[in-house]
Specification:
Layout: H1 2-9, H2 13-80, E1 89-92, E2 97-100, H3 107-124, E3 129-132, H4 142-154, E4 158-161, H5 171-180
Parallel strand pairs: 3-4
Antiparallel strand pairs: 1-2
Length: 198
């Protein structure tokens, strides 16, 4: 009754009703915007947390890979040289990597370290084969190259190497290389139809 009496006193009660309806609509819109804002804030927080967990997991996986490769590389270096020889270290970051050489940083040792790292990757990953060119072997000690031939063979995977002057690596290595050769090039047997030296 009081409401009806109050409304009767007004000249146009529809204005009040329209205003109440408008305010109700504004309240509804504002409530939804607050809900969306709170949801957006929660999603952003959850996304930030997920990204942090992903970054931590990525670091953990990279460290695991680094440890596996470095352990295999250390064993290969010991196999070729000795336990006294320190092995190079692969450090893998999220966006970069370094391969730190220690002690002897000469050309032959650098090439040897590269071959050993490649062999470590070949052995601990699903890589199906490895290819090395003769330029890598030129500056490496002959007895080390002979031991590398054994390592290539021990991987159980396909390896392709271009190597010359095989007799200087000793009889055992020479026989293994001759036994496994697929192609032998010389002055008369060239790789292409045209002899590019002429």
């Amino acid at each position: 009754m009081k409401i009806s009496a109050s409304l009767a006193e007004l000249d146009n009660p529809n204005v009040v009703i329209d205003r109440v309806y408008e305010l109700s609509q504004d309240h509804s819109v504002a409530s939804k915007e607050i809900e969306y804002f709170e949801m957006d804030t929660q999603i952003k927080s959850d996304l930030k947390e997920a990204k942090e967990l992903l970054a931590a997991e990525k670091i953990r996986i990279l460290e695991l890979i680094e440890n596996i490769v470095n352990d295999k590389n250390r064993r290969n270096v010991t196999e070729i040289y000795s336990e006294e020889r320190r092995s190079p270290t692969l450090n893998i970051g999220q966006n970069s990597y370094t391969f730190e050489l220690v002690e002897d940083t000469g050309t032959g040792k650098a090439y040897s370290n590269l071959i050993l790292l490649d062999l470590a990757f070949l052995e601990v990953t699903a890589l199906p084969f490895l290819v090395h060119d003769s330029v890598l072997f030129k500056n490496i000690q002959n007895d080390a190259v002979a031991k590398l031939i054994d390592l290539y063979e021990s991987t159980g995977k396909q390896t392709f190497i271009a190597i010359d002057e095989i007799e200087k690596y000793g009889g055992v290595a020479e026989n293994k290389l001759k036994g496994k050769k697929v192609i032998q090039l010389d002055n008369n047997n060239v790789l292409y139809v045209k002899d590019w030296r002429k």
